[in-house]
Design a protein that fits this description.
By secondary structure, this protein is mainly α. The chain has two domains: 40 residues, no CATH class; 110 residues, AhpD-like (Up-down Bundle). Helix content is 57%, strand content 0%. It contains nine helices and no strands. Helix 4 runs antiparallel to helix 5, helix 4 packs parallel to helix 7 and helix 7 crosses helix 8. 30% of the residues are buried.
């Protein structure tokens, strides 16, 4: 599978540094950074967003943020995002049954190991990822009862960040990078 476009033949030095860092961190030669070199401003701003997005917080652990990333990835059916965010999901304590629920094979409510906060965070991720954006008052009340304002911003920005990458990468036809060859990827999660 190939992207819709090829990377430019000449990539500015300052972007090559970012691509090198990305390769060092992920262990893979990722195509998105190279494609974004066609317009360096978007490459730089996307890289900054990626660096600054929350991967853990004092009250939102890595697991809940990984669940939000995965739920968003499956909701928007982005093969690259599913691949990237599925990588090492078991290292976050995500069981095979939980992963099946994230994929939409079983409902989230069938899984007893998800906490109430995790379920609400994943529901929020789905609402953020659908069009039109609709947030029923009943849900907002439940969200506010379980998360602080700061936590809501972190959850919303995490889901929005995955949505950004999903739209951008799918618009460029970027294929999966091979992070989760061990996982069966089934896009389209059900609520």
């Amino acid at each position: 599978m190939k992207a819709f476009i090829d990377p430019p033949r000449s990539i500015p030095f300052y972007l090559r540094i970012g691509i090198w860092i990305s390769r060092k961190v992920t262990g893979r030669d990722l195509l998105p950074g190279k494609l974004l070199a066609w317009y360096p401003k978007v490459a730089i701003s996307s890289g900054i967003m990626e660096i600054l997005v929350a991967h853990k917080d004092k009250t939102l652990n890595k697991r809940i943020l990984k669940l939000v990333r995965l739920r968003t990835s499956f909701t928007v059916a982005c093969p690259f995002c599913i691949d990237m965010n599925s990588y090492d999901h078991d290292q976050f304590g995500i069981t095979q049954q939980e992963y099946s629920a994230l994929q939409g094979r079983i409902t989230i409510t069938e899984v007893s190991t998800f906490s109430v906060r995790e379920i609400i965070a994943m529901e929020y991720a789905v609402l953020i990822s659908q069009s039109p954006l609709l947030f029923p008052q009943e849900f907002v009340t439940k969200l506010k009862a379980n998360f602080t304002e700061r936590e809501m911003v972190i959850l919303a920005s995490t889901a929005a960040q995955v949505n950004y990458w999903a739209r951008l990468l799918q618009a460029l036809g970027v294929p999966p990078a091979g992070f989760s060859d061990h996982c069966e990827i089934i896009p389209r999660a059900s609520s």
